[in-house]
Every structure is written in structure tokens, then in C-alpha cells.
Specification:
623 residues; alpha+beta; six-stranded antiparallel sheet; five-stranded mixed sheet; 24% strand
Length: 623
Amino acid sequence: MAALAVVFSRLLSMAVAALPVMALVLAVRAALGRAPARYRYGLWLAVGFRLACPVSVERLWSLYNLPGIRAVAETTGTAGSGVVRSLVDTAPSVPAVPPAAMNGTAVVSEVTEPSFWELVLPWCAVLWVLGVLAVLIWGMVSAVRLRRTVREAVSEGGEVWTCGAVPTPFVLGLLRPRIYLPPHLDDTTRTYVLAHERHHIRRHDPWWKLLGWCLLAVYWWNPAVWLCWVLFCRDMEMSCDEAVLDALGSEAKRGYSLSLVAHAAAAPMPAALAFGEHDATRRVKNVLAWKKATPRMAFLAAAAAVLAVTACLGNGMTGSSWVRMETPGPMIQVSWDLKEPIRAWALYADVYAYGTRTESRLLTCGELTQQSERTFTGTLYWDVPFDEAGGFSNTMVGFFRGESWNLTLPQPHYTGVGSMTGQTRQRLRLDETGGTTLVTIYLSDKEGGGTAVPASGDPILTSGGVRLRLATSQQGVEAFAKTDLAVSLHALHTPALGDDDAAALLEALETDMLDRYTFTRLSQERALEVEFESGPYDENALDASMLTRGALLMALADDLQEVRWSYPVWATGDGGRTERTVFMERSQADAWARNMGYEDLRNLGQTQEGIRDLLAYLGTSEQ
């Protein structure tokens, strides 16, 4: 049952990932309107691919790169080509739980009891298997009955057979498909029917219908798949109808529509492609309204179909794979291949504490010996070993292009470590090097090692974090330098805080990594109010991050006396939504400054060394 549960869980993810594709196909299908039906028929390739294939390749031109669909892609593993993995400890006392999607956030937490879904999923998987077997058996029994019905058929030469027991013409068979006709068809109707069914055979429609039927059997529980099946069959038949009219001309419309009506009342044949099946009323209307497509209309319809299908086949570029480390055994490996002309490269480590970047360190850099080299490849290894207390050490060990290095993390001890791997480009705000994020490592000192990681992959509402960032340059290594965060922040120091100053400081402190926000400067109260858009996963972590930012804001703005921040929370009583506001006064931060040996916070913020000391104090203090 465990294996069935894994398979069914993966099918659920694939079904959710296919929903945006189905929506796009339906929208493009409706937009094509009176365009040739063969282009609408071709759109279903994208839906079939998404339902049948669990993996794909990353593409810049992908439906899953759209912001509204990116959350679905990250939840179901459709963003990027990474595979969700768990490195599970062999000791039963430390279970590993894969991340679950919660409001666009990947959550890793320790559990002692299985959840309701974990208990129900195996039984849902058993029910799913029974449904698959029922649908397949129904199809097989229908095929056997139809074979028995046509066993007395008489050959008329080639693939055409006549059988008095069949009520309507149809195609049956895969390797050697045959066209079965009822007797006494007039010559005109016979011409229409044979042209229609032979077009099915040339286009290999029996195979496509079998594939669609198998997908329907696998996803029998999904109403969206049933809708797609009905429309897929309708488009298949309408495209054949139009192919016949295209060959015989407009004068055949009346006779062809009468032939459809004559065979529309026959019993459905799920094992075959029958002439009058699949919404004969709409097919007749489509035949009567048919006009030969102009070259311009055909080109535009084909272009729209190709663009839509290619946008659905590829995965998004924003995906990554989550790895939860429970043992220090295997090192995590990240490889890449940058196809761009470069001369020099550098690897940076951006260190975070409680959501605030406290350091950006240049780990190693180098120049390429070949000026003509257009591809830069590499492999990065990293590990966070266990410490004596049974948790994770604050020393990260890495190996990159023949060099090894150690990186000291903010806290001396961590209870949980996780990582997001994947190439994500960004330009940092406090330096000019920018680069490509290779790995983001998340660390927790909470009981149980729980961490909350935003779906965007940015740091973070955790105790600490490290972002390993690769920068490249077409100049030499002199283009890279160690980023001094204290120098960058001190450059923003102001005696009187204005709106532009406040915006610059909040941006420099990377406040948007906590959540989207708006701010208000209260000049009379000499206060700054930050309002976050959505409720945090961890209120204590958000408050700790904002306490750090509040101290830095008041150190860099001499006249700022108070920092406030607010965010929505759910009330415990009636379940309604309310607003929580937290205040931080200058007197509180002044006490921190005196603990550091400074007169007050204003004195600490006057120099780069004072800001550097404050960053170190905030990065290592217990919040």
C-alpha cells in the first residue's frame, strides 16, 4: 500500500500541474473559433503530455513561468527539472518529512504522529486502483463484445468489411485497422463514410484514442479529465469531417450532414471510432457552417496552436529541489553549465541571521585560461556536519573547483538544516556583483528543527541562512571584491529621515524578503511604520527579524525614535482576521548599544565600525 500511496500522490501532483494546461488549451480552443478543427485537435497533445509524463525540461518559454502559475509549479514540482528528495536518517528517532505546500511556503517540521492525510492516502490509492481496473475492464469487455459482433463480417477488399450486425460504420483495430460498414449503404453515404474513416486511419487516431482512454482510466476520479476526453473526441471527429469536406468540396455539406444524422442514434462504441458518435448535433452544425480556411487564417491558427503547445510542454525556470539533511553523510552536489562568454568568476557566500543579511563574503575567484571559452561548468559540494550536542555544527564545509573552505554560521548550534538548490539569477541591492544563486541553505535552532522557507527561495524566516552565489565577469578578477555590508549601510546614514531615505534603508535591509510591505513615515511622532501584506508562518521569527531591522534603522536615522510593524493574524476565538502591531522604541536599542560599550545607538551609528559591531551583535544574539 505504501508504494501505491506514493504513485497516487504523484498522480495528484501531476493532475494539479495539468490544470493550468487544461485551462490554456480550453482558452486557445475557444479563441480559435471557426479556425480549422485540426488545430484544436492538436492542442490536446499538451494535456496528454502533462497527464502522462512526470518529467520535462526547463524552458524560458513556459506557461509555468507566469507569476500566478509559478506557485502551482513549485508545489507540484513542475518548476525546474529538479526532483524532490529526502536524505533520511537511519535512526528511527529523527524522522524526515518532505516539504508540504502551505500558502506558497515549503515547510519542514518534525512530527510524531501521522497526519489525517497520511492515514487516508493509502486507502484512497486502493480506491484509485479499483477504479482504474473497472474502467479498463469495461473497455476490454466492450472490445471483446465488438469483436464477437463482427466475426461474421465479409471482406470487400483491402481494409473494408461489411457486417449486417453493426448499426453504424466504424474503425476497429490498431496494427491492422479495419473499416466495418452496415449493408445497403447508398453510394453517396458510402463515399462519405470511407473518406472519413480512412482519414482516421491515416492519422493513427485509433492509437491516439487508446492513449486517451488509458489516461482517462488512470484519472477516472478527475472531472477535468472527463471534460477534456469529451472535447478531445469531439475535435477528433470534427477535424475528420472537415478533412472530408476539404477533399470533396462545399457541395458535399448537405449530403454529409444527412449521413451523420442517419447514424447518430446508434449505440456508442467505446472500443472503436464510430462514424456518427460524439455529439452529432454539433458536428452537423459545424459541417453546415464550414468554409475552406484562407491561408492567413490557417497560418494564424497553426501559430497559436504551436505556441500554446510548446508553452505547456516545458517546465518553468524557477524551480528547485528541496533537500532535508538528517545525517552528515552524503554531501550535497550542485552542477551547472553557463553558456556565456566570461573571463572571470567568483563564489560569494551571503550569510543571514533572522532574515537579515549580516555578511557577504568572497570565498574564491579565478580567471579562465582560455579567452575563447564560451561555457563555464563547475560542481559545488557542501556539508554541515554534526556537532557534539547531536545537532548541526555552525561550520559549513565546501569544495569548489579544486579549493576547499570553511564558513562559520551565525549560531553555534542548529537543530535542522535544509537547502534549496537551483540556478536563480538576481542582482543584489548592496553590491554590483549580482550573480546566480546555486544553493540556499536554511538553518533552524527551534525545537524539532522546523524551518519555513518562502516559495521564492529568498532568505528567510529561520534562525540563519547562507546563499552561495556565483558571479561572472567579462573583465578580470579585479572586478570582484569583498562586499562590506557595514560600509554600504553607513553610506545611507541620515540625520533626518525622509521618505526617500526610509525607502532606501528598507530596501537595503532587504525587508521585502520577509513579505511584501508598505511603509508610512510619521513625522510628528518621528516613527516609521511598516505594514506587511500577509500573515507570517512564524510570528516570532518575523518579530525577531524586524527587531534587527528596527535597531539598524534607528542607528542609521538619528531622529527616528520608534519603529512599528504590523501584519494580519487569525484570531483564536471566532477565527476572524485581525491586525497585530509591534512597537520598538529607541530606548530598547540604546540598551543594546550600552551592552556593546557605546554611549547610545546614535553614537554607534556614526561610524562604519559601529555599524559593523551592531551587525555582529544582532547576528549572534539570542532573539
